[in-house]
């Protein structure tokens, strides 16, 4: 309960200082060090916690309460103040390194011994005694953690949340310690609770304010405090694993850029020094991802990795092989999830050249946006020759792997749009330039809107009796001036109407656009078989779109569509569709296999290397 109270005190202090104290300084026009509210809240909350622990403790076992915890907090405050002074005087950065080393030596003196006497081997329960190396290694540890944390100042919107997540991880790890170990030292719990509260409450400020920045000195001081928490609380293995992983995730240049730099060097192409040193957040910004989304992505990665840190502590008694296998599997799966999510969030760059078609999983897909697809359909209508348009989702791609006839139809189609987030995810995983889904139901909307404007006529074929006619009526009401050349439900054979007769009716109606709603692959095979006989400029398979336009079913809300869960919403309305959902894991397996084993990440018309469209960050 006391740690939770410390957490809440830090939250309240950050809110008060951010809204009252710093506002007064701004009004006075006096300069103030960055991060002073954050550092002050952490140190004050931790100090209060240590004092309360001493006052309420019924035993004398808490030897690291205020008497031994206060010096570490004081050293942290001095480090912050001196580092802020160095920054204000524009002195060299190496002075901060000296300050950290001196602060580490003072901490050892305050603790009366270098507490890094032993280090536990990664993933194991074996400890190694450091002997005479204890003091220098403790100082090196403190400097390493402090500097690694300070590097996250490059991503100011993330820094506070990152500090809070790591501190929360150390706090949870402390609670997993045996009771007798926890009673020896309360400083790690008090300091980590204070840092967790201040860090996590700063996330909303960081996401709303682009200029939110704790500053180098504050992040350096909080990194120093993290190292002290780890040293005193004996969390050395946990903290090092978390911080190294986060440094790899955020501090190194963009992995993709490095890959293309190596490939360019192999080809003898020149790459500028600035391009080869683009940091991850800079590259993501230049690929169209907003700062708020980058921050959210970083914090999600931090949360995941910190969760792994807690898992390492919680499973400390497990067999080494089992722990290593579990952590390895979670790291690999987490990498795939966050890597593909990053790719999905990327947008076209100004200079990116997009080919007409890309090949993914053996299927040609048109790399078009919705507006580009509608422009092409306008051109097809003006051309007056029959064109087959396919909206290809993950199920269609899998069908093409198994059905040679269907695969041939896709190869001959004039336009194949990426229908569904599954296709977008798979294509982006392979680094193909497909950024926007172009679904059948949205194509109906766009085509009908343009048809009403330009005088095109449409014909609706398919769905259950009454659905096509109702959908046509609803569309005509929504888009005044829309010409409906005719409708025909998809169960015509039960009424004794032959397929050839339906084809003749369509030909006689002379529509500009034919919508066929038979479902995959029947609708594509019908169109391909009668494309020339129907003589319709544009024939398009739209699946169950008219169930939505007839209002038989509701379409998923916008936020569900953005999450890529529209298929799940449809299954919720029609539970029988669960039987068809086996294609989802099958397509994911296909995409991952293609990504891992394909020597070329998808086949596409050659385009300039992405490094040519990434500019170095401005100073």
Offer a concise description of the structure.
With 619 residues, the protein is an alpha/beta fold. It is built from 27 helices and eleven strands. It has two domains: 251 residues, no CATH class; 217 residues, Rossmann fold (3-Layer(aba) Sandwich).
What are its keywords?
single chain; 619 residues; alpha/beta; Rossmann fold; 2 domains; six-stranded parallel beta sheet; three-stranded antiparallel beta sheet; 27 helices; disordered C terminus
Question: Can you walk through the features of this model?
Answer:
- The chain has 619 residues and is α/β, with parallel strands linked by helices.
- The protein has two domains: 2-252, no CATH class; 357-550 and 582-604, AF0625-like (Rossmann fold), CATH 3.40.50.
- It has helices spanning 2-28, 36-56, 66-88, 94-111, 134-150, 156-175, 179-184, 187-208, 216-233, 236-250, 255-266, 273-276, 280-286, 291-314, 320-345, 370-383, 394-402, 404-412, 421-429, 440-454, 467-478, 499-509, 522-534, 545-549, 558-562, 566-573, 583-597; strands at 118-120, 127-129, 357-360, 363-366, 387-392, 415-418, 457-462, 483-488, 513-517, 538-541, 603-604.
- Strands 6-5-10-9-7-8 form a six-stranded parallel β-sheet, sandwiched between helices. The chain has a three-stranded antiparallel β-sheet with strand order 4-3-11.
- Mean pLDDT is 79; it is low at 21-31, 244-260 and 599-619.
């Amino acid at each position: 309960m006391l740690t939770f109270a410390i957490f809440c005190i830090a939250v309240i202090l950050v809110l008060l200082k951010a809204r009252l104290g710093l506002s007064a300084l701004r009004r006075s026009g006096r300069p103030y060090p960055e991060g002073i509210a954050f550092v002050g809240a952490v140190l004050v909350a931790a100090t209060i916690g240590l004092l309360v622990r001493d006052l309420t403790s019924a035993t004398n076992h808490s030897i690291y309460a205020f008497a031994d915890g206060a010096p570490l907090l004081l050293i942290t405050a001095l480090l912050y103040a001196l580092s802020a002074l160095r920054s204000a005087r524009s002195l060299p950065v190496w002075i901060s390194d000296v300050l950290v080393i001196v602060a580490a030596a003072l901490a050892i003196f305050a603790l009366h011994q270098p507490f890094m006497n032993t280090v536990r081997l990664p993933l194991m329960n074996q400890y190694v005694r450091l002997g005479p190396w204890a003091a220098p290694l403790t100082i090196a540890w403190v400097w390493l953690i402090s500097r690694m944390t300070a590097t996250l100042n490059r991503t100011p919107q993330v820094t506070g949340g990152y500090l809070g997540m790591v501190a929360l991880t150390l706090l949870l790890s402390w609670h997993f310690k045996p009771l007798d170990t926890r009673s020896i030292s309360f400083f790690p719990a008090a300091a980590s609770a204070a840092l967790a509260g201040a860090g996590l409450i700063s996330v909303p400020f960081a996401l709303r304010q682009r200029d939110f920045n704790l500053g180098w000195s504050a992040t350096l001081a909080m990194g120093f405090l993290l190292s002290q928490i780890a040293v005193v609380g004996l969390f050395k293995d946990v903290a090092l694993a978390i911080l190294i992983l986060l440094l790899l995730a955020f501090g190194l240049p963009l992995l993709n850029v490095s890959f293309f730099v190596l490939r360019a060097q192999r080809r003898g192409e020149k790459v500028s020094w600035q391009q080869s040193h683009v940091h991850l957040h800079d590259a993501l910004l230049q690929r169209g991802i907003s700062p708020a989304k980058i921050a959210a992505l970083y914090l999600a990665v931090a949360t995941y990795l910190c969760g792994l840190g807690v898992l390492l502590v919680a499973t400390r008694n497990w067999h080494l092989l089992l722990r290593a296998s579990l952590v390895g599997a979670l790291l690999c799966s987490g990498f795939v999830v966050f890597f593909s999510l990053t790719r999905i969030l990327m947008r076209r760059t100004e200079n990116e050249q997009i080919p007409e078609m890309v090949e993914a999983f053996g299927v040609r897909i048109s790399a078009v946006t919705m507006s580009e697809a509608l422009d092409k359909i306008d051109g097809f209508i003006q051309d007056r020759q029959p064109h087959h348009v396919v909206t290809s989702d993950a199920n269609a791609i899998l069908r093409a792997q198994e059905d040679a006839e269907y695969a041939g139809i896709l190869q001959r189609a004039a336009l194949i749009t990426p229908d569904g987030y599954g296709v977008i995810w798979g294509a982006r995983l392979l680094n193909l330039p497909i950024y926007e889904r172009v679904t059948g139901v949205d194509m109906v909307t766009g085509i009908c809107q343009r048809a009403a404007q330009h005088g095109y006529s449409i014909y609706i074929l398919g769905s259950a009796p009454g659905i096509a006619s109702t959908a046509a009526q609803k569309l005509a009401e929504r888009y005044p001036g829309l010409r409906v050349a005719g409708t025909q439900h998809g169960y015509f054979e039960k009424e004794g109407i032959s397929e050839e007769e339906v084809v003749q009716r369509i030909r006689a109606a002379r529509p500009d656009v034919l919508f066929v709603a038979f479902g995959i692959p029947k609708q594509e095979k019908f169109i391909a078989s009668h494309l020339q006989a129907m003589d319709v400029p544009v024939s398009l398979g739209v699946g169950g779109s008219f169930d939505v336009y007839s209002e038989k079913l509701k379409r998923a809300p916008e936020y569900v569509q953005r999450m890529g869960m529209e298929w799940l919403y449809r299954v919720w309305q029609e539970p029988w569709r669960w039987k068809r959902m086996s294609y989802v894991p099958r397509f994911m397996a296909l995409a991952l296999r293609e990504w891992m084993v394909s020597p070329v990440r998808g086949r596409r018309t050659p385009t300039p290397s992405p490094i040519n469209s990434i500019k170095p960050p401005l100073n």
